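User: Here's a structure from my thesis project, written as C-alpha coordinates. My advisor, Dr. K., wants to see whether a designed sequence matches the one we expressed. Can you design one independently, without my sequence as a hint?
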Protein backbone atom coordinates (compact mmCIF):
# COMPACT_ATOMS: atom_id res chain seq x y z
CA UNK A 1 0.00 0.00 0.00
CA UNK A 2 1.01 3.51 -0.69
CA UNK A 3 2.76 4.96 2.42
CA UNK A 4 0.79 8.19 2.11
CA UNK A 5 -2.54 6.34 2.17
CA UNK A 6 -1.37 4.30 5.17
CA UNK A 7 -0.42 7.45 7.10
CA UNK A 8 -3.79 9.04 6.30
CA UNK A 9 -5.63 5.92 7.55
CA UNK A 10 -3.57 5.87 10.79
CA UNK A 11 -4.24 9.62 11.30
CA UNK A 12 -7.93 9.04 10.77
CA UNK A 13 -7.96 6.18 13.28
CA UNK A 14 -6.09 8.32 15.88
CA UNK A 15 -8.50 11.25 15.34
CA UNK A 16 -11.42 8.88 15.79
CA UNK A 17 -9.99 7.47 18.99
CA UNK A 18 -9.30 10.95 20.40
CA UNK A 19 -12.85 12.15 19.70
CA UNK A 20 -14.32 9.00 21.34
CA UNK A 21 -12.13 9.55 24.42
CA UNK A 22 -13.10 13.25 24.61
CA UNK A 23 -16.78 12.32 24.33
CA UNK A 24 -16.53 9.71 27.10
CA UNK A 25 -14.69 12.01 29.55
CA UNK A 26 -17.11 14.87 28.80
CA UNK A 27 -20.03 12.57 29.62
CA UNK A 28 -18.40 11.42 32.80
CA UNK A 29 -17.78 15.04 33.82
CA UNK A 30 -21.39 15.94 33.14
CA UNK A 31 -22.62 12.95 35.15
CA UNK A 32 -20.38 13.95 38.07
CA UNK A 33 -21.68 17.50 37.93
CA UNK A 34 -25.28 16.31 37.89
CA UNK A 35 -24.60 13.97 40.82
CA UNK A 36 -22.95 16.71 42.87
CA UNK A 37 -25.83 19.09 42.10
CA UNK A 38 -28.29 16.40 43.21
CA UNK A 39 -26.35 15.92 46.44
CA UNK A 40 -26.20 19.66 47.07
CA UNK A 41 -29.94 19.99 46.62
CA UNK A 42 -30.55 17.06 48.96
CA UNK A 43 -28.30 18.66 51.60
CA UNK A 44 -30.10 21.99 51.27
CA UNK A 45 -33.43 20.25 51.71
CA UNK A 46 -32.17 18.48 54.82
CA UNK A 47 -30.79 21.65 56.39
CA UNK A 48 -34.12 23.31 55.72
CA UNK A 49 -35.80 20.53 57.69
CA UNK A 50 -33.24 20.97 60.51
CA UNK A 51 -33.92 24.70 60.60
CA UNK A 52 -37.65 24.01 60.83
CA UNK A 53 -37.14 21.40 63.50
CA UNK A 54 -34.97 23.75 65.54
CA UNK A 55 -37.58 26.50 65.28
CA UNK A 56 -40.29 24.09 66.44
CA UNK A 57 -38.16 22.76 69.26
CA UNK A 58 -37.29 26.19 70.59
CA UNK A 59 -40.96 27.21 70.40
CA UNK A 60 -41.88 24.11 72.41
CA UNK A 61 -39.08 24.77 74.90
CA UNK A 62 -40.31 28.31 75.43
CA UNK A 63 -43.69 26.94 76.51
CA UNK A 64 -42.50 24.55 79.23
CA UNK A 65 -42.34 25.54 82.88
CA UNK A 66 -38.71 24.49 83.25
CA UNK A 67 -35.92 26.90 82.42
CA UNK A 68 -33.11 25.93 80.03
CA UNK A 69 -29.86 27.74 79.29
CA UNK A 70 -27.38 26.15 76.88
CA UNK A 71 -23.83 27.45 76.68
CA UNK A 72 -20.91 26.62 74.41
CA UNK A 73 -17.76 25.05 75.96
CA UNK A 74 -16.47 28.55 76.75
CA UNK A 75 -19.60 29.58 78.63
CA UNK A 76 -21.17 31.75 75.91
CA UNK A 77 -24.95 31.62 75.74
CA UNK A 78 -26.27 29.67 72.75
CA UNK A 79 -29.88 29.17 73.77
CA UNK A 80 -32.28 30.29 76.49
CA UNK A 81 -35.99 29.65 76.85
CA UNK A 82 -38.56 32.10 78.15
CA UNK A 83 -38.78 30.78 81.72
CA UNK A 84 -34.97 30.92 82.12
CA UNK A 85 -34.82 34.45 80.69
CA UNK A 86 -37.56 35.72 83.00
CA UNK A 87 -36.08 34.04 86.07
CA UNK A 88 -32.46 35.02 85.50
CA UNK A 89 -33.04 38.44 83.93
CA UNK A 90 -31.47 37.44 80.59
CA UNK A 91 -32.35 39.63 77.60
CA UNK A 92 -32.80 38.02 74.15
CA UNK A 93 -29.93 40.30 73.03
CA UNK A 94 -27.59 38.51 75.45
CA UNK A 95 -27.18 35.55 73.11
CA UNK A 96 -23.46 35.10 72.41
CA UNK A 97 -22.43 36.81 75.66
CA UNK A 98 -20.68 34.97 78.49
CA UNK A 99 -23.00 33.54 81.17
CA UNK A 100 -21.65 35.93 83.84
CA UNK A 101 -22.57 38.89 81.62
CA UNK A 102 -26.02 37.59 80.75
CA UNK A 103 -27.29 35.99 83.98
CA UNK A 104 -28.38 38.60 86.53
CA UNK A 105 -28.44 36.29 89.55
CA UNK A 106 -25.25 36.23 91.59
CA UNK A 107 -25.99 32.87 93.29
CA UNK A 108 -26.53 31.07 89.98
CA UNK A 109 -23.43 32.64 88.39
CA UNK A 110 -21.37 31.52 91.42
CA UNK A 111 -22.76 28.00 91.12
CA UNK A 112 -21.86 27.78 87.41
CA UNK A 113 -18.41 29.21 88.10
CA UNK A 114 -17.69 26.70 90.86
CA UNK A 115 -18.77 23.72 88.77
CA UNK A 116 -17.77 24.85 85.28
CA UNK A 117 -15.03 22.30 84.73
CA UNK A 118 -16.40 19.47 86.86
CA UNK A 119 -17.47 16.21 85.33
CA UNK A 120 -20.49 15.72 87.61
CA UNK A 121 -23.88 17.40 87.66
CA UNK A 122 -24.35 19.99 90.38
CA UNK A 123 -27.77 20.20 92.11
CA UNK A 124 -28.83 23.03 94.38
CA UNK A 125 -32.11 24.36 95.69
CA UNK A 126 -32.33 28.15 95.56
CA UNK A 127 -34.85 30.88 96.22
CA UNK A 128 -34.82 33.08 93.12
CA UNK A 129 -37.15 36.07 93.48
CA UNK A 130 -40.40 34.65 94.87
CA UNK A 131 -39.77 31.15 93.48
CA UNK A 132 -38.16 28.01 94.91
CA UNK A 133 -36.03 26.54 92.15
CA UNK A 134 -34.04 23.36 91.74
CA UNK A 135 -30.95 24.44 89.80
CA UNK A 136 -29.06 21.72 87.92
CA UNK A 137 -25.83 22.47 86.09
CA UNK A 138 -24.41 19.82 83.80
CA UNK A 139 -20.90 20.31 82.48
CA UNK A 140 -20.25 16.66 81.71
CA UNK A 141 -20.54 17.25 77.95
CA UNK A 142 -19.19 19.75 75.40
CA UNK A 143 -22.11 22.12 75.76
CA UNK A 144 -22.94 23.28 79.28
CA UNK A 145 -26.56 23.06 80.30
CA UNK A 146 -28.35 24.88 83.11
CA UNK A 147 -31.75 23.51 84.05
CA UNK A 148 -34.19 25.33 86.33
CA UNK A 149 -37.13 23.43 87.83
CA UNK A 150 -39.85 25.42 89.57
CA UNK A 151 -40.64 23.83 92.97
CA UNK A 152 -42.76 26.70 94.31
CA UNK A 153 -46.12 24.91 94.20
CA UNK A 154 -44.76 21.65 95.62
CA UNK A 155 -43.04 23.58 98.42
CA UNK A 156 -46.27 25.42 99.20
CA UNK A 157 -48.23 22.17 99.57
CA UNK A 158 -45.43 20.55 101.57
CA UNK A 159 -45.41 23.47 104.00
CA UNK A 160 -49.21 23.41 104.25
CA UNK A 161 -49.16 19.66 105.01
CA UNK A 162 -46.42 19.99 107.61
CA UNK A 163 -48.06 22.98 109.26
CA UNK A 164 -51.39 21.16 109.29
CA UNK A 165 -49.97 18.07 111.04
CA UNK A 166 -48.00 20.18 113.50
CA UNK A 167 -51.04 22.37 114.27
CA UNK A 168 -53.49 19.49 114.67
CA UNK A 169 -51.05 17.67 116.92
CA UNK A 170 -50.58 20.73 119.11
CA UNK A 171 -54.33 21.37 119.21
CA UNK A 172 -54.98 17.82 120.39
CA UNK A 173 -52.31 17.92 123.05
CA UNK A 174 -54.12 20.28 125.43
CA UNK A 175 -57.56 18.58 125.60
CA UNK A 176 -55.81 15.24 125.91
CA UNK A 177 -53.74 16.43 128.85
CA UNK A 178 -56.96 17.67 130.51
CA UNK A 179 -58.65 14.29 129.90
CA UNK A 180 -55.68 12.48 131.39
CA UNK A 181 -55.79 14.65 134.48
CA UNK A 182 -59.53 14.00 134.94
CA UNK A 183 -58.97 10.26 134.58
CA UNK A 184 -56.16 10.30 137.11
CA UNK A 185 -58.40 12.11 139.60
CA UNK A 186 -61.23 9.69 138.91
CA UNK A 187 -58.85 6.77 139.39
CA UNK A 188 -57.98 8.08 142.81
CA UNK A 189 -61.70 8.58 143.68
CA UNK A 190 -62.76 5.09 142.53
CA UNK A 191 -59.94 3.15 144.13
CA UNK A 192 -62.26 0.64 145.79
CA UNK A 193 -64.71 0.12 142.94
CA UNK A 194 -63.43 -2.70 140.75
CA UNK A 195 -65.61 -2.16 137.64
CA UNK A 196 -65.04 1.58 137.58
CA UNK A 197 -61.31 0.97 137.93
CA UNK A 198 -61.34 -1.40 134.97
CA UNK A 199 -63.02 1.16 132.70
CA UNK A 200 -60.78 3.95 133.88
CA UNK A 201 -57.69 1.83 133.13
CA UNK A 202 -58.95 1.17 129.64
CA UNK A 203 -59.66 4.84 129.01
CA UNK A 204 -56.24 5.73 130.44
CA UNK A 205 -54.54 3.27 128.08
CA UNK A 206 -56.23 4.90 125.08
CA UNK A 207 -55.29 8.36 126.28
CA UNK A 208 -51.65 7.29 126.64
CA UNK A 209 -51.74 5.81 123.15
CA UNK A 210 -53.07 9.06 121.70
CA UNK A 211 -50.46 11.00 123.63
CA UNK A 212 -47.71 8.85 122.08
CA UNK A 213 -49.26 9.18 118.62
CA UNK A 214 -49.22 12.97 118.89
CA UNK A 215 -45.63 12.94 120.16
CA UNK A 216 -44.56 10.75 117.22
CA UNK A 217 -46.41 12.90 114.67
CA UNK A 218 -44.77 16.04 116.03
CA UNK A 219 -41.31 14.37 115.93
CA UNK A 220 -41.91 13.18 112.36
CA UNK A 221 -43.12 16.56 111.11
CA UNK A 222 -40.07 18.23 112.73
CA UNK A 223 -37.72 15.74 111.06
CA UNK A 224 -39.43 16.20 107.70
CA UNK A 225 -38.80 19.93 107.76
CA UNK A 226 -36.13 20.61 105.10
CA UNK A 227 -34.76 23.47 107.13
CA UNK A 228 -34.28 21.36 110.28
CA UNK A 229 -31.06 22.23 112.12
CA UNK A 230 -28.68 19.42 113.02
CA UNK A 231 -26.97 20.54 116.22
CA UNK A 232 -23.75 18.57 116.46
CA UNK A 233 -22.53 17.98 119.98
CA UNK A 234 -20.11 15.51 121.53
CA UNK A 235 -22.08 12.92 123.46
CA UNK A 236 -20.69 10.54 126.07
CA UNK A 237 -22.42 7.46 124.70
CA UNK A 238 -22.31 5.17 127.74
CA UNK A 239 -23.92 7.70 130.11
CA UNK A 240 -26.44 8.63 127.38
CA UNK A 241 -27.56 4.98 126.98
CA UNK A 242 -27.64 4.30 130.71
CA UNK A 243 -30.03 7.21 131.23
CA UNK A 244 -32.22 5.89 128.40
CA UNK A 245 -32.22 2.37 129.85
CA UNK A 246 -33.27 3.69 133.23
CA UNK A 247 -36.14 5.63 131.54
CA UNK A 248 -37.30 2.37 129.92
CA UNK A 249 -36.69 0.17 132.97
CA UNK A 250 -40.35 0.03 133.92
CA UNK A 251 -41.48 -1.68 130.71
CA UNK A 252 -38.35 -3.87 130.68
CA UNK A 253 -39.16 -5.07 134.20
CA UNK A 254 -42.78 -5.71 133.31
CA UNK A 255 -41.59 -8.12 130.60
CA UNK A 256 -38.71 -9.41 132.66
CA UNK A 257 -36.31 -8.37 129.88
CA UNK A 258 -32.66 -7.74 130.74
CA UNK A 259 -30.74 -4.96 128.95
CA UNK A 260 -26.99 -5.34 128.60
CA UNK A 261 -24.44 -3.00 127.05
CA UNK A 262 -21.07 -3.43 125.44
CA UNK A 263 -19.89 0.16 125.21
CA UNK A 264 -16.31 1.33 125.82
CA UNK A 265 -15.97 3.71 128.80
CA UNK A 266 -14.70 6.55 126.59
CA UNK A 267 -17.12 5.99 123.68
CA UNK A 268 -18.01 9.38 122.22
CA UNK A 269 -20.15 10.35 119.27
CA UNK A 270 -20.49 13.80 117.72
CA UNK A 271 -24.09 14.08 116.62
CA UNK A 272 -27.48 15.69 117.26
CA UNK A 273 -28.54 14.59 120.74
CA UNK A 274 -32.31 14.83 120.17
CA UNK A 275 -32.15 12.79 116.96
CA UNK A 276 -29.88 10.16 118.49
CA UNK A 277 -32.29 9.98 121.45
CA UNK A 278 -35.26 9.41 119.11
CA UNK A 279 -33.35 6.66 117.29
CA UNK A 280 -32.10 4.79 120.35
CA UNK A 281 -35.33 5.15 122.34
CA UNK A 282 -37.40 3.63 119.55
CA UNK A 283 -34.95 0.80 118.85
CA UNK A 284 -34.56 -0.21 122.50
CA UNK A 285 -38.30 0.20 123.11
CA UNK A 286 -39.02 -2.19 120.21
CA UNK A 287 -36.34 -4.63 121.37
CA UNK A 288 -38.10 -4.82 124.75
CA UNK A 289 -41.68 -4.85 123.46
CA UNK A 290 -41.17 -7.51 120.78
CA UNK A 291 -39.10 -9.71 123.09
CA UNK A 292 -40.03 -12.91 124.87
CA UNK A 293 -40.66 -13.12 128.59
CA UNK A 294 -37.21 -13.25 130.27
CA UNK A 295 -35.44 -12.25 127.01
CA UNK A 296 -32.37 -10.14 126.41
CA UNK A 297 -31.47 -6.84 124.74
CA UNK A 298 -27.88 -5.93 123.93
CA UNK A 299 -26.67 -2.45 122.95
CA UNK A 300 -23.17 -2.25 121.50
CA UNK A 301 -20.87 0.50 120.25
CA UNK A 302 -17.97 0.00 117.84
CA UNK A 303 -15.65 2.53 116.28
CA UNK A 304 -14.92 1.58 112.66
CA UNK A 305 -12.48 3.28 110.28
CA UNK A 306 -14.75 6.04 109.03
CA UNK A 307 -17.92 5.52 110.98
CA UNK A 308 -19.48 4.46 114.23
CA UNK A 309 -21.56 1.30 114.47
CA UNK A 310 -24.30 1.15 117.07
CA UNK A 311 -26.33 -2.03 117.32
CA UNK A 312 -29.45 -3.00 119.23
CA UNK A 313 -30.00 -6.77 119.23
CA UNK A 314 -32.73 -8.75 120.95
CA UNK A 315 -33.69 -12.35 121.56
CA UNK A 316 -37.32 -11.65 120.66
CA UNK A 317 -39.97 -12.88 118.27
CA UNK A 318 -38.09 -11.70 115.14
CA UNK A 319 -39.54 -10.26 111.94
CA UNK A 320 -40.67 -12.53 109.07
CA UNK A 321 -38.47 -11.97 105.97
CA UNK A 322 -41.42 -10.91 103.80
CA UNK A 323 -42.21 -8.01 106.19
CA UNK A 324 -38.69 -6.58 106.49
CA UNK A 325 -38.85 -4.32 103.38
CA UNK A 326 -41.90 -2.53 104.82
CA UNK A 327 -41.15 -2.05 108.53
CA UNK A 328 -39.81 1.50 108.03
CA UNK A 329 -43.05 2.64 106.41
CA UNK A 330 -45.42 4.79 108.39
CA UNK A 331 -48.05 2.86 110.42
CA UNK A 332 -46.70 -0.50 109.24
CA UNK A 333 -46.89 -3.22 111.86
CA UNK A 334 -46.20 -6.92 111.43
CA UNK A 335 -48.94 -7.76 113.90
CA UNK A 336 -51.31 -4.86 114.29
CA UNK A 337 -53.07 -6.21 117.37
CA UNK A 338 -49.84 -7.00 119.23
CA UNK A 339 -48.39 -3.55 118.48
CA UNK A 340 -51.64 -1.82 119.58
CA UNK A 341 -51.76 -3.82 122.82
CA UNK A 342 -48.20 -2.70 123.52
CA UNK A 343 -49.10 0.94 122.87
CA UNK A 344 -47.24 1.08 119.55
CA UNK A 345 -48.12 3.75 117.00
CA UNK A 346 -46.40 2.18 113.98
CA UNK A 347 -44.34 5.36 113.56
CA UNK A 348 -41.24 4.44 115.59
CA UNK A 349 -39.11 2.96 112.82
CA UNK A 350 -40.11 5.75 110.37
CA UNK A 351 -38.71 8.20 112.93
CA UNK A 352 -35.56 6.07 113.31
CA UNK A 353 -34.98 5.98 109.54
CA UNK A 354 -35.64 9.68 108.97
CA UNK A 355 -33.42 10.76 111.89
CA UNK A 356 -30.60 8.44 110.74
CA UNK A 357 -30.77 9.93 107.25
CA UNK A 358 -30.70 13.48 108.64
CA UNK A 359 -27.49 12.51 110.44
CA UNK A 360 -26.04 11.23 107.13
CA UNK A 361 -26.06 7.70 108.50
CA UNK A 362 -27.57 4.42 107.39
CA UNK A 363 -29.53 1.62 109.01
CA UNK A 364 -29.43 -2.14 108.53
CA UNK A 365 -31.62 -4.89 109.93
CA UNK A 366 -31.13 -8.62 110.32
CA UNK A 367 -33.77 -10.84 111.80
CA UNK A 368 -34.70 -14.45 112.28
CA UNK A 369 -38.22 -15.44 113.19
CA UNK A 370 -38.42 -16.84 116.70
CA UNK A 371 -34.76 -16.05 117.43
CA UNK A 372 -34.36 -12.28 117.45
CA UNK A 373 -33.58 -9.08 115.60
CA UNK A 374 -30.52 -6.85 115.19
CA UNK A 375 -30.73 -3.21 114.07
CA UNK A 376 -27.41 -1.58 113.18
CA UNK A 377 -26.92 2.15 112.77
CA UNK A 378 -23.85 3.59 111.05
CA UNK A 379 -23.08 7.23 111.74
CA UNK A 380 -20.27 9.31 110.26
CA UNK A 381 -17.45 10.05 112.72
N1 LIG B 1 -37.06 -5.62 117.54
C1 LIG B 1 -38.13 -6.03 116.86
N2 LIG B 1 -38.51 -7.33 116.88
C2 LIG B 1 -39.59 -7.75 116.22
N3 LIG B 1 -40.40 -6.96 115.51
C3 LIG B 1 -40.10 -5.65 115.44
C4 LIG B 1 -38.95 -5.11 116.14
N4 LIG B 1 -38.91 -3.80 115.89
C5 LIG B 1 -39.97 -3.52 115.09
N5 LIG B 1 -40.69 -4.62 114.83
C6 LIG B 1 -41.89 -4.72 113.98
O1 LIG B 1 -41.94 -3.57 113.16
C7 LIG B 1 -43.17 -2.86 113.37
C8 LIG B 1 -42.94 -1.38 113.22
O2 LIG B 1 -42.18 -0.88 114.33
P1 LIG B 1 -42.44 0.60 114.82
O3 LIG B 1 -42.39 1.50 113.65
O4 LIG B 1 -41.53 0.89 115.96
O5 LIG B 1 -43.95 0.59 115.29
P2 LIG B 1 -44.61 0.12 116.67
O6 LIG B 1 -45.22 1.34 117.19
O7 LIG B 1 -45.62 -0.90 116.27
O8 LIG B 1 -43.56 -0.42 117.56
C9 LIG B 1 -43.65 -3.30 114.73
O9 LIG B 1 -45.05 -3.19 114.82
C10 LIG B 1 -43.17 -4.73 114.80
O10 LIG B 1 -44.10 -5.57 114.16
MG1 LIG C 1 -41.94 0.98 118.03
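Assistant: Designed independently from the structure alone:
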Amino acid sequence: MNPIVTSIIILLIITCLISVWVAVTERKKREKLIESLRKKRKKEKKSNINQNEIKLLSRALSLIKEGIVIMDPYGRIIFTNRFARELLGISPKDEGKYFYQAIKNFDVVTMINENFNESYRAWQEKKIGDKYVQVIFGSDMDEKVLLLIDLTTIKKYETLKKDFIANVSHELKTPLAAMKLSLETLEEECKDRETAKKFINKAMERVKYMEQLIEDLITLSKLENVGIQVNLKEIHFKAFIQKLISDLSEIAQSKNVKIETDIPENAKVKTDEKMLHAIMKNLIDNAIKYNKEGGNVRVTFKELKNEIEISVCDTGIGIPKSHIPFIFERFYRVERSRSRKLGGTGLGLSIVKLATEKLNGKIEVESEEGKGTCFKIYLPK
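When you compare it with your expressed construct, this may help: The first helix runs from residue 3 to 63.
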